[in-house]
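pasting for the record
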Amino acid sequence: MASRKSIRLTITADSDNGFDKWRSTAQRWCREVWQNLCTPLRLALQTHPLPGDDISELVAAGRIREAYPPLGSPFVTIAVEDDERHFAARTLTERNLAAIADDLRWASGVAITGGILEPSFLGRDPGWPRLYLTASRDYGADQFTLGLLASSDFLVPDADGEARLLSVARLFADGCNPTYGEAGPNHSAGPTGSTLEAKIGVNAEHSPTTGRTLLRGYSWLTLLPQEIGDRLGGVQALRDTGAFHDVSPLAAGGYWLQATEHLRHYDNDSARRVRDALSNAMPALYRHALVGRTLEI
């Protein structure tokens, strides 16, 4: 039976470069992740293509199962949503994937979700491999978030999978001076926020750390904004902590902190070293919640 563990990657950045930039970033994020990190689902859809139907009414009525193909088939959807919670949903095809930028003319977020249909207590549902890929814009905070939550057995099955994940993360992190980002084991978090916030019970929407002065978490890979990294002493000071395999500056500003060379080596001891190296940049609430504990791996 496939592993039920999952991996998450999330990057949050300021969206002050204009609406067209945000739309093109979301389009590119969905395309890069789908093409480079979702091979099992992508190949399954090539073998069992979906018709590309509009299933918005079925989703709104809670009857999405009526659109499901037989057990063992892939079922992946693209849904867009505006600020008024109006949805439009379609099954995933290359044509629908290419239309994301146009959809975002009226929508504030897009989500690609699905998996291979397997038996469930409701009949059948997308199981493993499982994918939840999002891009959303928060107009109030003037930020956008790129999120990925997927089963580890197809996202990072080996060192090559890790390299592909890090390559996609670096591609987008280098272009935005992120306000926060992380990649690593999932701890009951969604594709946004941080695993630390999920662990200590802080709602990501009410996080005190959405700006550039406080750090909202840490993981195997942690992305710091320029301001926080500078306050912690910069590249050399972060390297001198001994907590990181790789510390390097991002092209557009910010810091890339990779705890261990391989994800399989990221254990409780390495997580504690990262926690201790970064805790001074976290809100007091987070520091107090971490006294004597860490994120169990």
